[in-house]
Amino acid sequence: MSFIRSAVKTSTFFRPNLNTSFRSTSLFARWISTEMKARLDKDVKSKDVVLFMKGTPDAPMCGFSRAAVQILQVQGVDFNKVNAFNVLEDPELRESIKEYSEWPTIPQIYIKGEFIGGCDILLNMHQSGDLEDLLVKEEIVPPEVQEDEKN
């Protein structure tokens, strides 16, 4: 392998383009503007749970966004305490959040400012019990009272 190919392959200066669709076959990855990065830094910390989705929690516009909302509802998350951003209203936000998180799909969930993942990760965490543990640990939902404690 040539020196240049090796340097490009291992350099953090050249960022890979995660979107492999036909329209993004350019050689250069899109970079987030300084203003958008500052906005996203602020947005992901705006509430304990932040959801970037297609549509709104009341009217999701895709099945994955609907599933993410339903999982959070089943977990007992109060949506008055969730900041949800509809990426369909802002094309720049839609593309920038993918680069910001280095995650290629929507929806995206942040808890206490930390990126958790998309719908698939949220579903896996829900099924394993890890999501409930995280939400209780971060004091987003109260711990479930066991039957033995009630009697």
UniProtKB/TrEMBL annotation:
<dbReference type="GO" id="GO:0051537">
    <property type="term" value="F:2 iron, 2 sulfur cluster binding"/>
</dbReference>
<feature type="domain" description="Glutaredoxin">
    <location>
        <begin position="49"/>
        <end position="116"/>
    </location>
</feature>
<dbReference type="InterPro" id="IPR033658">
    <property type="entry name" value="GRX_PICOT-like"/>
</dbReference>
<keyword id="KW-0676">Redox-active center</keyword>
<dbReference type="InterPro" id="IPR004480">
    <property type="entry name" value="Monothiol_GRX-rel"/>
</dbReference>
<dbReference type="GO" id="GO:0015036">
    <property type="term" value="F:disulfide oxidoreductase activity"/>
</dbReference>
<keyword id="KW-0408">Iron</keyword>
<keyword id="KW-0411">Iron-sulfur</keyword>
<dbReference type="GO" id="GO:0044571">
    <property type="term" value="P:[2Fe-2S] cluster assembly"/>
</dbReference>
<protein>
    <recommendedName>
        <fullName>Monothiol glutaredoxin-5, mitochondrial</fullName>
    </recommendedName>
</protein>
<dbReference type="InterPro" id="IPR002109">
    <property type="entry name" value="Glutaredoxin"/>
</dbReference>
<keyword id="KW-0479">Metal-binding</keyword>
<keyword id="KW-0001">2Fe-2S</keyword>
<dbReference type="Pfam" id="PF00462">
    <property type="entry name" value="Glutaredoxin"/>
</dbReference>
<dbReference type="GO" id="GO:0046872">
    <property type="term" value="F:metal ion binding"/>
</dbReference>
<dbReference type="InterPro" id="IPR036249">
    <property type="entry name" value="Thioredoxin-like_sf"/>
</dbReference>
<dbReference type="GO" id="GO:0005759">
    <property type="term" value="C:mitochondrial matrix"/>
</dbReference>
